[in-house]
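Researcher: For the annotation table, I need structure tokens for Small ribosomal subunit protein uS14. Please keep the output clean. Sequence:
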Amino acid sequence: MAKKSMIEREKKRAKLVKQYATKRAALKEIANDESKSMEERFKARLKLAELPRNSSATRLHNRCQLTGRPKAYYRKLKVSRIMLRELASNGQIPGMVKSSW
């Protein structure tokens, strides 16, 4: 089980990313537009730098929804490998059975 503080920090980051997504996208659009003047693009970059760091989507980290484990995460199921195995063994994932040969 991950520390509660880390799970909460990740939730806070996700909230910030959602909050600033449109503003960040608009500023990036201006900053990367070659047809705009250099000064206008530079101002957009400065405004982008003033936004909170945690509002960037690259600072998000996927975590298991059941345990909060940050590593060995399956995106499709949103759980870690350990929980995947445990849920499959209990028969809680449809179509997944324990392999034996």
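Researcher: And a one-line annotation?
Model: The longest strand covers residues 73-74.
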